[in-house]
Structure formats: structure tokens, C-alpha cells
Structure prediction request, 186 residues.
Amino acid sequence: MAAPGGAGPIGPYPEGVDSDEDREDYDKLRRRVLWTLPYGLYVVGSRHGERRNGMTLNWATQVSFDPKLVGIGVEKPAFTHELITEGGVFSLCTIAREDRAVVRKFTKPVEVDLEARTLNGFEFRDGTSGAPILAMAVAWLDCEVRQAVDCGGHTFFIGEVVDAGFHAEEDTEVLRMEDTRMNYGG
Ligand SMILES: Cc1cc2nc3c(=O)[nH]c(=O)nc-3n(C[C@H](O)[C@H](O)[C@H](O)COP(=O)(O)O)c2cc1C
Prediction:
């Protein structure tokens, strides 16, 4: 997935990058550098009332020991953004490396079957916070939003971990960005 936008190069520019061509070149170079940052790859669960979603996301990191805070960067147009803003909760699920195909199933709003308790056919249960947690997750963090930092095109939601656990063996290899041929960001 390419970086969103298409509105032309984005500043600021280092000294000496003055012409349109230089700016284009620098913009591409900076994107390539950003793409080399190593990331994990997750499914984020979100919920407001009876509306739920699951979304593929790589911009996730722990940001504090005490309290236990985890942050995720979410695009403002995403349905997930709406649900987290209104519901104030999210879950972060790691996925087994062998299940990499799952990533493509969570790139647009999912079909929720409340009777079968599935998101796009994948079984879920509601965590302590109320956010959906995939049964197939290797491990999961259940979070309540403590801060929402406006970052322009994205919001960085910082959540406190209110519950956590494993569904699979602790040493199961989990999915990373490098396991896909996709880019996000840059
Ligand atoms: C490999 C990959 C990584 C992604 N990482 C993020 C991310 O970190 N943050 C984000 O907002 N969207 C990310 N997306 C895009 C979302 O999965 C999704 O397409 C979009 O945000 C809409 O989700 P929605 O169902 O909430 O509307 C990524 C997509 C792919 C394929």
C-alpha cells in the first residue's frame, strides 16, 4: 500500500533542496528511509456500542512502563478512528506468522456477525474494555484510551493496558511488516 496523499512533496526540506525536482527527489528518498523502519503487524479491534471493527495496523508501540501505555497511529478517515474516538477503547492483537493472509482481510470495515460472534468470519470475543479480541490472536492487549494526540492525517491513540493474555504458545512467531510485500507510511 502506497503512502496516501498524492498532493506533491511534503516539507520541510533540508538546506539546498530548492527546485521542484529536488523536492520530489528528497520526498521519495525520505519515504524510502521511513519504509525501512522495522514494524510489527497487528489487528486492532475497536468498538462503540454494538458497532465493531478490526483493522490491519503496523504503527503500534509501547510508550510507557508505568502506567502501561501503548500507542497506535490511526488514519482519520478510517472507521476504526471513528469507533475509537467514540468508544474510547481498542485491542491490539498479534498474529501468527503463518496466518499472514489475514492482514488483507482487515483493510476495510469488516462484516460483523453478532450471532456467530465473528468479524469477517474470524471468531472474536469482547474484552474487559468491550473491544473485540480475535480468537486467532497469538497474544492480545486490551486498552482504554487515555490520550488522543492529533498528528495531522492520523491520530495517535494512547491506551492503558487493562487486560492482556495469550491464546497460543508464548514463543509462537508473530507477524512483522517484513513478512508482507506491503508498505504503509513513508
Ligand atoms: C500492511 C498494512 C499496514 C497498515 N497500517 C496502518 C496503520 O498503521 N494505521 C492506519 O491507520 N492504517 C493502516 N493500514 C490501513 C488500514 O488497514 C485500513 O485500510 C484503513 O485504515 C481503513 O480501515 P477501516 O476498516 O477502519 O476503515 C494498513 C494497511 C496495511 C495493508
Observations:
- The two ends are 10 Å apart (CA to CA).
- The first strand starts at residue 42 and ends at 48.
- Residues 20-35 form the longest helix (16 residues).
- The chain has two helices and eleven strands.
